[in-house]
Amino acid sequence: MFSIDPSPPPEIKLLRRELTTRYANITLVISFIVLLFIGVRAFAAPYLPRFIRRPVSLMLVVPLTFGILVLLSVLQTHDDYLFLTKRLGRISAAIMPALIFLSLKPCPIPRESYLRLMPLHIWLGRVLVVISTIHGGLYVIYFIINGKQQKIIQLNNFAGVVLTVGFVLTLFVSFYIIRHRNHDLFYRTHLLFSWACIPLIAYHARPRVWTIISLLMSFIGGQLIQRYGSGQECRAQVHQIGNMQLVCLPRKQFPKYFEPGSHVRLSPSRTNSRFWFISASHPYTIASLSTDDSTVQLVVKPTKRFKFEEDREFIVHGPYPSLSYDFFVDMYKSKKPLRRTVIVAGGAGISFAAPIANTLRKMNERVKILWSVRSKSDAMLLKIIRLDDVEVFVSADTDALEDHFLPTMELQEISSNGMLGLDRPKFANDGGFDVLEDTSDLLRKERVNLHIGRMDVETELKNFKASTNIDDGMWVISCGGRHLVSECSKWGHKLGAIVHEEIYDV
Ligand SMILES: Cc1cc2nc3c(=O)[nH]c(=O)nc-3n(C[C@H](O)[C@H](O)[C@H](O)COP(=O)(O)OP(=O)(O)OC[C@H]3O[C@@H](n4cnc5c(N)ncnc54)[C@H](O)[C@@H]3O)c2cc1C
To answer: DSSP class of residue 407?
Structure first.
C-alpha cells in the first residue's frame, strides 16, 4: 500500500528524483529500441520465414506494452505515493517522442508504411492518456489530502492540468463515432494539441526534460516542414462516372516511380480554404500505375465534406506506399506463378485493386478480382482504369440490371486511353481513341461478369481456394469500407491466407 509522507527528508527527495529520472530514461530507451526493432524487421522481412514476417498481433503488443509500463512505474517506488505519482508523469512524457514518431508521414523507417504503424500510434496514445490521467488524478488527491488545493492552480502545476485535459479530449475525439462524424474536429484537435504539448511539457516537468523536448521538437518540426514545405499544388480534372468520380492529376508532378497501391494525400490549397494550414489531408489511392499515361488517376466516392470539383486546386503530398515491401520482393523473386491472390474491393476500393492486380498479372500471377458496387454504371470505370477479368457484384439497383448491359451512350464516352471522350482534361494525350461500339463490348472485351446481389465473401473465398491447387501462399487483399474488409480478413485468416487490409477510413 502506498503511503504519503508530507515532509520527506532531503535524501528521500534526492532518491525520488534520481529514480524518477532513471525510470523515465529507461522508458525512453526501450521505446527507441522498439522503433529500432520495427526498422530492422522491416528491412529484414524479405529474408525471414513467412511466419515471422506476419505483423505482430495488437492483442499481444498492447498488453505487453501496458505491462512493461506498469512495471517501470511501480519498480523501486518504496511504497511511497509521491514516488509513484511523479514517476507516472515522467513516464508519460517519455512515451511522447515514440508516439509522435509513429504518426509521422511518410514513415521515417525505410520500407515501412505509416499506415501499418498507425494502430500502434493509436494504442500507445490510449495508454499514455491512462497513465497521465492517473498521474494528474493522484496529484489532485495528494493536494486535497494535504490541504494544498491552491497548488493545483499554481502556474506550472496548472500546465499539467491542461495537459491531462488535452490528452483526455484528444482521446475523446478519437472515438470512432466522433472521428467518423467529424474527421476535421478529430484531426485539428490532434494537430493543435501535439504542438501545444511541447511548451506545456517543457514548463510543467520538473526537473526539466530537455532530451524529450528536443526529440519532440525535431519530430514535430520535421512534420511541419513536410506539411507546409513539400506539398505540390495540383489542379484536378474531375469526371462523374456512375456514383463515383474519376479525378485526374497531372502525371508530370509525380515522381517517376511509385509502388502500385500507393496513395496520395490531398488537402485544400490556400485559395480554397481559410483554414488550409490546419485542414486534414485526405488519402486517395492512385488507381493508375507509375508507367501509365500523362495523368495520375484517382477513383473517388464523393463524401460529405471534401469535394472534388472541376479545376479545383489541391495541395498533394506523397505518393506513400501501402503494401509491405516484402509483398513486392516475393513477387519479383518468383520465376513462375506461385502465389494465388484474390482481391476483394468495395466501391472506390477498386482504386487499390486495379494497380495491384495489373502489376501481378503482368508477372503472370493468378489474380481474381471481386468488386462490390452499388450501381451497374460504376462498372464503366473498369475500362478507364484498364482493369479486366473482374467479377462485379451489384448490390443496390438490381431492377436496372435486368438486361445485364451497361448503357451504350455512356460507354461511348469512354476512350481506351482512360480519358472521357466528351470532356477530356487539357493535359491528356488526345491521340488514339478507341471508342467502344456497344455495351456488350465491355462485358466481352473486358471479361466482366456481372452478378446481381450482395457478394458472399465466405463462399467466394472458399471457391477461390478450392479452384486451384497451388499451395504456396494464398493472399487475400481487401480494400474499401471497414465492414467488407474485416469480413474478408476474417475468412482469409480462417483459410490460412496472408491477409492485407486497406481500409478507406481511419
Ligand atoms: C489509405 C486510404 C486510401 C483511401 N483511398 C480512397 C480512394 O481511392 N477513393 C476514395 O473515394 N476514398 C479513399 N479513401 C477514403 C477517403 O480518404 C475519405 O473518404 C475522405 O477523406 C473523406 O473525406 P470527407 O471529409 O469528405 O469525409 P466525411 O464525409 O466527413 O466522412 C466520411 C468518412 O471518411 C473518413 N475520413 C474523413 N476524412 C478522412 C481523412 N483525412 N483520412 C481518412 N479518413 C477520413 C471519416 O472518418 C468517415 O468515416 C482512402 C482512405 C485511406 C485511409
So the answer is: -
Residue 301 alpha carbon, nearest atom of ligand 1: 11
pLDDT by residue (tens digit) across 429-465? 333 223 343 445 666 667 888 888 899 999 999 998 8
> If you measure from the C-alpha of residue 184 to the centroid of ligand 1, how many angstroms do you get, rounded to a whole number?
11
Residue 388, all three cell numbers: 479486366
The pLDDT tens digits of the residues spanning 336-353 come to 555 688 999 999 999 999
Q: Which three cell numbers stand for residue 231?
A: 506539398
Kind and range of the H or E run holding 441: helix 439-445
Q: 232: how many CB neighbours lie within 10 A of its CB?
A: 14
Residue with CA nearest ligand 1 atom 15: 504
pLDDT band at 112 (very low <50, low <70, confident <90, very high): confident
Q: Is 472 in the pocket of ligand 1 (CB under 6 A)?
A: no
Nearest CA to ligand 1 atom 20: 282
Ligand 1 center–CA 345 separation, angstroms: 15
Amino acid at 485: V
Atom of ligand 1 nearest to the CA of 300: 11
Q: Ligand 1, from 284, 312, 316, 482: best to mutate by most atoms within 8 Å of Cβ?
A: 284
The percent of residues above 90 in pLDDT, for the chain, comes to: 52
Domains of the chain: 10-229 (no CATH), 232-320 (2.40.30.10), 325-503 (3.40.50)
Q: Which three cell numbers stand for residue 181?
A: 462524424
Are 1 and 79 in contact by the 8 Å Cβ rule? The answer is: yes
Show the cell assigned to 91: 513516464
Which pLDDT tens digit goes with each residue over 491-504?
998 988 888 889 99
* Distance between Cα 480 and ligand 1 center (Å): 10
Phi/psi-derived region of residue 437, left when phi > 0, alpha when psi is between -120 and 50, beta in every other case: alpha
Which cell numbers in the block locate residue 468? 486451384
Q: What are phi and psi of 234, to 5 degrees?
A: -130, 145
Residue 476, SS3 per DSSP: strand
Q: Which residue has the cell 472515438?
A: 175
| Distance from Cα 452 to the centre of ligand 1, integer Å | 27
CA of 505 to the centre of ligand 1 (A): 5
Q: Ligand 1: distance of its center to the CA of 504 in Å?
A: 6
Q: Is the pLDDT of residue 401 over 80?
A: no
Q: What are the beta bridge partners of residue 286?
A: 298
C-beta of residue 269 within 8 angstroms of C-beta of residue 233? yes
Which of 114, 178, 306 to mutate to test ligand 1, by most ligand atoms within 8 A of the CB atom? Answer: 306
Is residue 343 packed enough to be buried (19+ CB in 10 Å), middle (13-18) or exposed (0-12)? Answer: buried
Question: How far is it, in rounded angstroms, from Cα 388 to Cα 470?
Answer: 23
Nearest CA to ligand 1 atom 17: 283
Ligand 1 pocket check for 283: Cβ under 6 Å: yes
